[in-house]
Amino acid sequence: MNFFEYQDRARRNSGLLVGLLSLAVVLLIGITTLAAAALVAYSSGQPFNPVNVGTLLGWDTVGAIALTISAVIVLGSFYKLRQLSSGGRTVAEALGGRKINIAQHSDAEKRALNVVEEMAIASGTPVPEVYVLDDDAINAFAAGHEPQDAVIGLTRGCIERLSRDELQGVVAHEFSHIFNGDMRLNIRIVGLLHGILVIGLLGYWLLRGTYIGSSRDNRGRAALFGIGAGLMVIGYTGTFLGNLIKSAVSRQREYLADASAVQFTRSNAGIAGALKKIGGYSGGSQLSSAQAPEFSHMYFASGLRRSFTNLFATHPPLPSRINRLDPDWSGHFPSVESAVPGPQDERLAGIVGVAPLDSAASLERLSESVDNSIGNPGQDHIELGQRLLDSIPVDLRAAAHDPFAARAIVYLLLSHREASQRQKQHAILEKIAHPGVYRELQKLSPSIRAMPACARLPLLDLCIPALRALAPQQYQVFKRNLIKLLRSDGRVELWEWALYRVAMHGIEGAPDGHRVSHNRKALADATRFLLAALAHAGHEDYLAANRAYGAGLEALNYSKTPLPSRSDITLPRLDKAIAITRSMKPLQKPGLLKALAACMAHDGVLEAEEIELLRAVADSLDCPMPPLAVDMVTREALQRSTESIL
């Protein structure tokens, strides 16, 4: 099953989850109605028969009970989901996490951030915000709605007691939850369960109220006590059913995430070693936060003490998970009571002394990245991500974590390649940018110009968490300045738009909602426009671009239409085309990306700008494409590989 199939399954699982929890709500309504009818029958001295519920209560009362319970659950769920609307940072902060993307306080935190950045670069996803929980337990989690608002949470025990390989296995496990669409499902589970729990909380508050009123109002207090007790029973019955559903859904996804982590790292030793250390560590994986039970299904390992029954276990037993990863395991858990030293922990800045990046790849490699590697990075991509990080000068890597310097880096990445145009742009920035940002721009400019072209996108990805930390007013000024920078020479080059789109998607997520259209013709027009943009990106000559455009249309089985002119390719129209194509179903997206690849491959030359544009489109469609070190391939190599795409 590839990334697109996982995404399609995640959508169906979300519907199944809502259906199961809706069934739990219906059962609650039924239990409440029966309880009310039994109470009426008892108080009036009539025999109780479930068949006569309508007669005992009246159908208006039955309808009012159903409406009231449904309204309480919906409002409670909406309130909780509203609280979680800002993404994974809400979960991390509720658990007491501290963000370390901008400020790391120890070598262990630097190493943890480095591992997360490597995985993000290797998989083509925006670098997530990383939070450290001041808890000695060994645990982790991924939370958010989309990759753009995802966070990775790591406990202090996790970053200090695991080796680098083990930490990489844990991080790969959490990234698999990001790729497979589990995060949004997890957030919905929290919201829906909270809505059901509200009924029980209302009952609890009513019971407390019975001890506050006047002692002379015994009849009123008795009524409140009865209603409160009934609501508590109903609410916690619903929570019982909801937790059963949550646990059953969560356990199977943990096995899948373990398998995905092995696939990403090409090693079972790392993640299996982390699980073994959890079993042998006195602190285990149990979190001390009071909010830990609410998010229990999000963790790498069980964050709660195991109860007398496995019915509510959100994670499979440790031995079961370890045996799947390491069939030869002896069953012995190692003793882990101190931080783990060793040479692997000394590596804080990626692999040192590796071979230069390969500058060529066949179309077969590109096809694999379009189809099989999206959302499914392998060890070769991780190694490439490590080398890409190493190719970024040390001063730029440090600067990317600072909100002032990160803005300067993005301005420099989008600066014109011609010196005269670049000087004109920098003169504009001197007037409109923050003075501190402009000083960073002047200081970092030589390093940016000396950096290899293949490192532009990775460096931009490193800047995303710092840019997300900008205050709303700072961000609006920054975005406005970016647009002025792009338009300063009278036109927007496609490579400029590609970098701009990756930055905006990483910070904001989806393009403006009012542009989205589900009209089939609008979708076809947007697809044709993206093909035209890529055709012009790879060809200066109109006839050559037209032939490439035709190859892309043929890959989609679209009829041939005239190629839009280069002047028609504007930033607003590109953004609109992306907004429309985002509405495609997951299983339709690979066809578009393969057609774009066929368009690129038509002339037998793959340039770095074309790869950046393809990755920008894939990123905007929420299809994380691993990086490729591609400058050029021969026409013969492309022709030999074309059939694998078409």
Automatic annotation (TrEMBL):
<dbReference type="GO" id="GO:0008233">
    <property type="term" value="F:peptidase activity"/>
</dbReference>
<keyword id="KW-0479">Metal-binding</keyword>
<protein>
    <submittedName>
        <fullName>Zn-dependent protease with chaperone function</fullName>
    </submittedName>
</protein>
<keyword id="KW-0812">Transmembrane</keyword>
<feature type="transmembrane region" description="Helical">
    <location>
        <begin position="185"/>
        <end position="207"/>
    </location>
</feature>
<keyword id="KW-0862">Zinc</keyword>
<feature type="transmembrane region" description="Helical">
    <location>
        <begin position="62"/>
        <end position="79"/>
    </location>
</feature>
<dbReference type="GO" id="GO:0006508">
    <property type="term" value="P:proteolysis"/>
</dbReference>
<dbReference type="Pfam" id="PF01435">
    <property type="entry name" value="Peptidase_M48"/>
</dbReference>
<dbReference type="InterPro" id="IPR050083">
    <property type="entry name" value="HtpX_protease"/>
</dbReference>
<keyword id="KW-1003">Cell membrane</keyword>
<keyword id="KW-1133">Transmembrane helix</keyword>
<keyword id="KW-0378">Hydrolase</keyword>
<feature type="transmembrane region" description="Helical">
    <location>
        <begin position="222"/>
        <end position="245"/>
    </location>
</feature>
<keyword id="KW-0645">Protease</keyword>
<dbReference type="InterPro" id="IPR001915">
    <property type="entry name" value="Peptidase_M48"/>
</dbReference>
<keyword id="KW-0482">Metalloprotease</keyword>
<feature type="transmembrane region" description="Helical">
    <location>
        <begin position="16"/>
        <end position="42"/>
    </location>
</feature>
<keyword id="KW-0472">Membrane</keyword>
<feature type="domain" description="Peptidase M48">
    <location>
        <begin position="114"/>
        <end position="326"/>
    </location>
</feature>
